[in-house]
Amino acid sequence: MTETHTTGTRPARPAVVPRTRSRLLPPLLGVVALLVVWQTATWLFAVPAWMLPSPSRIVVEAVAVAPDLGDDLLATTWLTVLGFAIGAVLGLLVAALLHLVDPLKQAVYPLLIVSQNVPTIALAPLLVIWFGFGLTPKIVVIVLVCFFPVAVAAMDGLRAADPVALDYLRMSGADRGQVFRLLEVPGSLPTVFSGLKIAATYAVMGAVVAEWVGSDRGLGHYMLLQKSAFRADRMFVSIAVIIALSLLLFGLIALLERRLTRWRPRRER
């Protein structure tokens, strides 16, 4: 009797594993189908490996060069994390400042939009001329690509505060700082994390571009060397590592989002 009562009062747990499996299965099947078509095409048309290696050849090469990629992977990871952190913090601070000071927003926001029309790959050589081949130009490149999505997402989130809650706080006598701290900042978190996830993927791309332009280590430098040697298989290995690093950063940001936005309904996370 006791066991039956306990089972009946315990709330039903959501089927997390089947739901996760159903979400992951379609993209995994798509990747497998792409690899099968790729492998078949390279074998059927006898495509030279220096032009387009088969997936199986890339896997074999990945196992062979894995011990040599460690230092370059660590260099790119450190550069990515450092640049992303600086860009994200800078984007959040600027977004808060522009949100609180409306005349400043009207003056600066159009310049932010215009600045995004300048391709980063065109700025990178100029940064090398201005700052040399050290760490600074690489960090600046990553900060530039991370800053904008975080700043714009944060400004949109701060502006989209719940109007009913806003009226309630104002009627309760809350000042501007209290409205910002108690309503606008918590309400903007979902949008802010959307910007952070986009910036995390951009950060890896920015690090590789920076290393490509001027560096003596890192995945970008490694890819440049392999391009000169016509080692397309090793370039694909580098691309796979870059994708894995981007997905890892994206996943960490998504995990942090889930922990900090538990107040949201599950279907909105």
UniProtKB/TrEMBL annotation:
Ranges of residues in domain ABC transmembrane type-1: 73-254
Key words, A-Z: Cell membrane, Membrane, Transmembrane, Transmembrane helix, Transport
Transmembrane portions of the chain: 28-51, 78-101, 108-133, 139-161, 198-215, 235-256
Topology term for the membrane: Multi-pass membrane protein
GO cellular component: plasma membrane
Major location (coarse): membrane
A single BP term in Gene Ontology: transmembrane transport
InterPro entries per UniProt: MetI-like (IPR000515), MetI-like_sf (IPR035906)
Gene3D superfamilies for the chain: MetI-like
Compartment(s) of residence: Cell membrane
Family membership noted in the UniProt record: Belongs to the binding-protein-dependent transport system permease family.
Protein name (record): Nitrate ABC transporter permease
Provenance organism: Cellulomonas soli
